[in-house]
Design goal:
Helix content is 49%, strand content 14%. The chain is of the alpha+beta class. It has a 4-stranded antiparallel β-sheet with strand order 7-6-9-8, with helices on both faces. A hairpin with a 2-residue loop joins β8 and β9. α1 packs across α3, α3 packs across α6 and α7 packs across α11. It is elongated.
């Protein structure tokens, strides 16, 4: 109505609880996750099963537990990603064994203790141990040790090599300076009344009455929180679920009546009723940001994180490619 909308995990989950005993999905549009111990891939002499695959699908898409399945349109992509991950983890594990990496006893003890903390009671832990590891503590320890070996090798080959230097971060900033320039913008909240399509005269009158009632209450709002609580209750636009809050909006995306109102307002002020065709809105003005450029000091930490993540993905991909060169991998 008023403006245009502004516009791979590295963790190892090898010994996480699987939750494979859930009942089949009933809702339409879902692919049920089920595991029966069926082989899905062979990595050298090791067979990976659908138990490994489903566990990783849950790790990639945790909402599958809540909904008891994967959305059909996402299921092939998630399964492909899960397959790649379990094969990659097995390759890394086998490489860690080839290098004779060792997990200190203290590290194993801590990992076992941390794992037990996931469960609410000893009974819950024992039920998991029985369902996933035939009640065997030794099998669980093997799985935990496997994860720690994978983690150790990834730390050596990926994590320890991905942090960029300050000079590299600054060089990226200078090469991509346009990315850090921003147009003039406003930050604000809204309460809007949107009549239905082809509204009758009575419906239009009802909309006008609603916005006038909302305006009287909006004028009494002293804070953004108070205005936002009112927006949650009475607004029709999608921003009501965010207490009417809009991110900084470039002036080119604002409807002229809204921009004109903001131009003469002061921070904290509430506009009058603004009519946009048959709709109405009220604006709570928060901040004006002139056109400019974000300084390096302001974006340095986020850039370092982004560059590290990019480098991490490159290193993982290179490691995967290198390990596959000397391995026999067969998907079934």
């Amino acid at each position: 109505m008023m403006l245009a909308v502004t516009a791979a995990s590295s963790q190892v989950a090898s010994h996480a609880p699987t939750g494979l005993k859930q009942s089949p999905a009933q809702a339409q549009g879902l692919v049920t996750l089920q595991a029966h111990g069926k082989p899905v891939a062979r990595v050298n002499n090791t067979v990976l099963t659908d138990v490994d695959l489903v566990r990783e699908e849950y790790a990639i898409f945790p909402y599958a537990r809540q909904h008891n399945g994967l959305p059909k349109e996402l299921a092939p992509q998630i399964r492909d990603g899960a397959m790649k991950m379990i094969v990659f983890e097995e390759l890394v594990f086998q490489e860690a064994q080839r290098r004779h990496l060792v997990i200190p006893a203290a590290r194993m003890q801590k990992a076992e203790a941390d794992f037990r903390k996931q469960f609410g009671s000893p009974a819950e832990f024992n039920a998991f141990l029985k369902s996933d590891f035939q009640g065997s503590q030794d099998l669980l320890r093997q799985k935990i040790r496997r994860s720690l070996l994978i983690e150790a090798l990834l730390n050596a080959e990926v994590e320890s090599k991905c942090t960029p230097t300050l000079a590299e971060v600054r060089a990226y900033y200078e090469r991509n300076i346009a990315r850090f320039q921003h147009p003039e913008s406003y930050t604000f909240q809204t309460i809007s009344v949107l009549p239905p399509a082809n509204a009758t005269a009575a419906q239009l009158g009802e909309g006008r009455a609603r916005i006038e009632a909302a305006y009287q209450k909006a004028r009494e709002a002293k804070t953004s929180e108070q205005f936002g609580m009112l927006a949650e209750k009475v607004s029709d636009d999608d921003y009501r679920v965010m207490m009417g809050q809009h991110k900084p909006v470039p002036i080119g995306q604002l409807a002229p009546p809204v921009l004109n109102a903001l131009r003469v307002m002061k921070p904290g002020a509430v506009s009058g009723i603004i009519q946009l065709d048959q709709a109405y809105t009220i604006v709570h003005y928060q901040q004006h940001t002139p056109a400019g450029k974000a300084p390096f000091a302001e974006v340095r930490a986020q850039l370092r994180k982004e560059l590290c993540e990019s480098k991490k993905n490159q290193l993982r991909s290179a490691l995967d490619k290198k390990l596959r060169l000397s391995a026999h991998v067969q998907e079934m």
